[in-house]
Amino acid sequence: MKAQLDELLALPRDEQGPVFREPWQAHAFALAVRLSEAGCFTWAEWAATLSDEIKAAQQRGDPDLGDTYYEHWLAALERLCVGKGLLDIADMLRRKEEWRRAYLNTPHGKPIELSAGQRR
Amino acid sequence: MSEHHHHHDHHHDHDHTDPPSDLELRVKSLESLLVEKGLVDPAAIDLLVDAYETKIGPRNGAKVVAKAWSDPAFKKWLLEDATAAIASLGFTGRGGEHMKAVENTAKVHNVVVCTLCSCYPWPVLGLPPVWYKSAPYRSRAVADPRGVLKEFGTGLPEDVEVRVWDSTSEVRYLVLPERPANTDGWSEEQLATLVTRNSMIGVEKARTTDN
Description:
Chain A is mainly alpha-helical. Chain A has helices spanning 2-10, 23-37, 43-59, 69-83, 89-104, 115-118; strands spanning 13-14, 17-18. Chain A folds into two domains: 23-87, no CATH class; 89-120, no CATH class.
């Protein structure tokens, strides 16, 4: 109990709560860091792509108050993965649909496995 | 999954799980494809997620500042070569490769911003707060730094020079706040409790001993 409490208090937080609001944000963050460490793109390329995404979002009318930051991050990651030839857009869309079906095909409370969305 | 009944008093069926948001599905799609292609190691991703969520925060930076306040030789090293001085404490990694420490004094106050996106020294400060990533902060910190500081409750006398440092993917900045008064004889651990994240971004001063 004490250890759990310590862990909770140690989470990086700001006035508005944890800096990652949802786990997907942490995963998107980690993927970009690891891919650049693996040499798939340079950090300068990453920063340029992210700032392009942020600018594009502002032009679409996003007030860009920081709460949509990881949405831009994810869009930049997808764009760079496709641009660098790491992934194919059609594969990404198909895989997303497979994950969605995996949830729908899995009884509530059971772990979600991708294979559950790939079975017909 | 042949039939779904939707009642007005909606209750969840137990033979399926509601899919998460589109954003989450996009991340799962990316991650699983990248893992299949051998471009990322899922264990490495989990390690990094765990480290940033639970282990790294502004506390690393607070230790750096407290050491600089206590140890003049370390402070000199930090101001000359922040990357090496910080790495000597074991705080290394993405976003911390080219660090520069800027010292606040009675006459100079430093503030850090990233006008382009949100470059931030993760290994020492964890992940950036929401306001740091916001467009108003990014533009106003440069155009009207004193106004921004005032909103953080940091009023500065007219004769204090405000320096704004714009982070890039090449250089990240860490503000070395002024050591608070009445802390003679404090240990590094005690001093570190006075160092806030905002004081290392430069929008506030370090805590004083009476709050």
